[in-house]
Amino acid sequence: MRLMETPFSPFTFEAPGRLIDFMRQAGQPGLINLAAGVPGLDALPVPALTEAFHRAGEHDGRELFTYHRPEGDPALRELIAARLTTRGVPGLSGDDVIMTTGCTQALQLMLAVLVQPGDIVACEAPGYYGLLELIAAMGARVLPIPVGSEAGIDLEQTRELLHRWTPKCFVICPLLSNPSGASMPLSARKELVEICRSAGVRLLEDDIYAELTDGGAPPPCRAFDDGSTVSFVTSFSKTLAPALRAGYCLPGTPELYEAYATKKCQQDLHSSTITEGILREFLAADGFDPHLDWLRPRYAARRAVVMEAVREHLPAGSRLFTPEGGFLLWVTLPEGTNLPALRAAALERGVAFAAGNVFYPSADLPGATHSIRLNCARAEEADLARGIAIIGELLKR
After folding, report:
1. pLDDT tens digits, residue range 118-134?
2. Label partner for 123 (CA 20 to 30 A): which of 46, 178, 278, 339?
3. Residue 1: per-residue pLDDT
4. What are the pLDDT digits (tens) for 84-96?
5. Helices 102-114, 254-268: crossing angle, 10 deg rounding
6. 229, 202 in Cβ contact below 8 A?
7. Which of 341, 347, 309 is nearest to 28 (CA)?
8. From the CB of residue 268, how many other CB atoms can be counted at a distance below 10 Å?
9. What is the DSSP letter of 232?
10. How far is residue 177's CA from residue 209's CA, in Å, rounded to a whole number?
11. What's the pLDDT at 397?
12. What are phi and psi of 229, to 5 degrees?
């Protein structure tokens, strides 16, 4: 699709929904929650994390409960750097890593370093609604880059848009993107880095779902860069435990690293020493890979339940994206679907889903008015199928 055929230009984003509303709904009792992008309670390795907490207390003593460096626990940062090295990221050490309070803070701080009011920030369409809120809060405009298939963005169209508008950065989740579940092929991730480098656009890579890829996490975009073009953020919220609020960033160049660490210190001094101690001990005991090896097939089974229910109950003309892992599914419903009415009626029946319009900077973009995101992780398997059946029944009415 050529540039002149598309409506893709910078938008001033006004949120049709709020991240705070999704989060308040996450633990609502009696609700079949297919909405918020959160893992299920039965996916959390509570005994192993409890043991890691006790080991952290024995190892650190009083130091576990006091201030520390804004960049975070040095031993934890070395463990993280070593893990990224196994994914093909070259030349890393713990000194390249800054710990954050979740991926949202990691994104927010990187945007704060790069972006000024009035600037343009490119991101996927559909893309993470929390990111759209962050961009809007900074007074920047959003340049949507369309996700057309399970393979993610179209590189030729991306090249044209980035060279035309020269945004300050392009924020993308190239592996298991939220909400579409799209994963870019390895060659496309490598080419995207070259496109951003040639356009002079900073690539801000969000890797938060990559470890849930069936078969293991592939090399990220950062594997094809030395930090001069790509900044990298992620967290353990989707893979280990959201309540740890443990994320991190590889800002890139020494100048970006120092600016990022300064903003981190100004914002909250440092992230939780207790959280970082738990995570350090969990990783040091080689607990993460066995947990992921158990988690990935669990989510694959739950996706299969929802995909079968979608095919059985949703109307003809619906399109289901098939991801390569994770616990989110993206469905495009027939055009003309009244999403607000559908969402309200579903809530009355005790079912919540995420309406697709919140993932776009403008309702004028293709798919914004008739797509939904479904979370396969939170509800019990029987409730997953029942929730989709209720949505299908309402649509047929």
Report:
1. 999 999 999 999 999 99
2. 339
3. 32
4. 999 999 999 999 9
5. 120
6. yes
7. 347
8. 13
9. E
10. 7
11. 81
12. -120, -35
The DSSP 8-state label assigned to residue 219 in this structure reads P
Instruction: Note whether 360 and 126 are within 8 A (CB).
Output: yes
Question: Rounded CA gap, 158 and 33, in Å?
Answer: 34
Give the separation between CA 390 and CA 373, rounded to whole angstroms: 15
**Cβ atoms of 370 and 356 closer than 8 Å:** yes
Q: Which of the 8 DSSP states describes residue 286?
A: T
Which residues are within 8 A (CB) of 233 and not within 5 positions of it... i.e. 6 or more apart?
100, 103, 106, 107, 110, 204, 205, 206, 207, 208, 247, 248, 249, 250
CB 378 within 8 A of CB 40: yes
By three-state DSSP, how is residue 125 classified? strand
Alpha-carbon 295 to chain mean position: 17
Take residue 217 and report the two structure tokens written for it.
Answer: 């996490």
Alpha-carbon distance 145 to 158, whole Å? 6
Which pair of tokens denotes residue 92?
């890393």
User: Most distant CA pair in the chain: distance in Å?
Assistant: 63
Q: Is the pLDDT of residue 27 over 90?
A: no
Sheet holding 319-320, edge to edge: 32-34, 351-355, 371-375, 328-332, 319-320
**Burial environment of residue 91 by CB neighbours within 10 A (0 to 12, 13 to 18, 19 or more):** exposed
Q: What is the DSSP string of 8-20?
A: ---B----SS-HH
Instruction: Give the C-alpha distances (Å, rounded to integers) separating 94 from 80, 174, 316.
Output: 7, 24, 51
SS3 285: coil
The whole-number average pLDDT for the span 378-389 is 93
Distances (CA, A) of 286 to 28, 82, 95, 183: 34, 12, 22, 27
Which residue's structure tokens are 């809007």? 136
How far apart, in Å, are the Cα atoms of 255 and each of 248, 261, 306?
Answer: 17, 10, 46
Contact yes or no for 352/31 (Cβ under 8 A) = yes
- Cα–Cα distance for residue pair 354/372, rounded to 1 Å: 6
Q: Name the one residue in this structure whose structure tokens are 């962050």.
A: 134
Q: Say how far residue 281 (Cα) sits from the centre of its chain.
A: 25
